[in-house]
Design brief:
The protein folds into 2 domains: about 200 residues, Rossmann fold (3-Layer(aba) Sandwich), CATH 3.40.50.170; about 90 residues, Methionyl-tRNA Fmet Formyltransferase, Chain A, domain 2 (Roll). The strands form 4 sheets. A 7-stranded mixed sheet has the order 5-2-1-6-7-9-10. About 25% of the residues lie in helices and about 30% in strands. By secondary structure, the protein is of the alpha/beta class.
């Protein structure tokens, strides 16, 4: 017997999970996603990735402004869902909604819980220098990402991987893991629930533009982690010649201390700007002058006068 599934999700991370359910024997009876909002430089209203897939597949789409609205809850109840699957929906779910599916809600979360509960688990893990992350499937409860865990799968974080690359891999892992959990529930198999250790919980706060600020006196590894962890937004930011620059990609050139003030450009080469950190040297290989497109350092040097001894400053 196939299950009647309601899917809750919004950005591209959720697309593999929705696609996996659509390709399964289960029936996706509705997709709940956040309302379209203005995005980008032109502030144009554009649908997010989940909605685009739902439109393509001709699915029933719901974009509620208020999740506690009695009329909307009645509509969801009338669909008689067996289970709800959540992947990066982006809003807290009220108890009145959680009580509707007979098998409850499960969530595809991009971390190894209880580490990195919250809105930006992949970015925070990379900025913190974590070398391993993963996906956890958990029961949804009223507290933020605090429900008992059903399944998890770990994956390493490469030394130079950005949040974009890690998140894409986690989305694929999560899709397979979620479908496996739903299948076990459909087959009435016993699903083991493991409580989270509250003492080990950490919080992945929502990203803000201010997260891009950093101090060059921190170690090269920490600066590199911030650059790759804040890609593609808000991006690590610095200032050179009174011009704000966004840092796209970097490499830890060396980890030993050198005789130069933090932020000093010790070499300006076409393959990267070598910049002294508090400990070690960071090589900036791609950047974006504010208001322009991202570019390799070689292209940046073609139109900008940068010399050895110039110094980056905090924004």
């Amino acid at each position: 017997m196939s299950l009647r599934v309601i899917f809750f999700g919004t950005p591209s991370f959720a697309v593999p999970s929705l696609r996996s359910l659509l390709d399964s024997p289960h029936a996706v009876v509705a997709v709940v996603t956040q309302p379209d909002r203005p995005r980008g430089r032109g502030h144009r209203v554009q649908p997010e990735a989940v909605k685009r897939l739902a439109v393509e597949r001709g699915l029933r789409i719901s974009e509620p402004e208020r999740l506690k609205d009695p009329e909307w809850l009645a509509e969801i109840r009338a669909l008689e869902p067996d289970i709800a699957v959540v992947a990066a929906y982006g809003r807290m779910l009220p108890q009145a909604l959680l009580d509707i599916p007979r098998l409850g809600f499960i969530n595809v979360h991009a971390s190894l819980l209880p580490r990195w509960r919250g809105a930006a688990p992949v970015h925070r893990a990379i900025v913190a220098g974590d070398t391993v992350t993963g996906v956890t499937i958990m029961r949804v409860v009223l507290a933020l990402d605090a429900g008992p865990m059903i399944a998890s799968q770990a994956t390493p974080i490469g030394r130079d991987e950005t949040s974009v690359e890690v998140e894409a891999r986690l989305a694929t892992i999560g899709a397979a893991l979620a479908q496996d959990v739903v299948t076990h529930m459909e087959q009435r198999d016993a699903v083991a629930l493991q409580p989270q250790d509250e003492a080990q919980a950490t919080y992945a706060a929502k990203l803000e533009r201010a997260d891009g600020r950093f101090d060059w006196s921190t170690p090269a590894t920490a600066i590199h982690n911030r650059i790759r962890g804040l890609h593609p937004w808000p991006l690590a930011a610095t200032r050179l010649h009174d011009r704000r620059l966004l840092l796209i990609r970097s490499i830890v050139e060396r980890e030993e201390t050198i005789d130069a003030e933090p932020g000093t450009i010790v070499a300006a080469r076409r393959d990267g700007l070598l910049v002294a950190a508090g400990l070690g040297v960071v090589r900036i290989v791609e950047l974006q002058p504010e208001g322009r497109r991202p570019m390799p350092v070689g292209d940046f040097l073609n139109g900008t006068s940068v010399r050895e001894g110039d110094r980056f400053e905090m924004v």
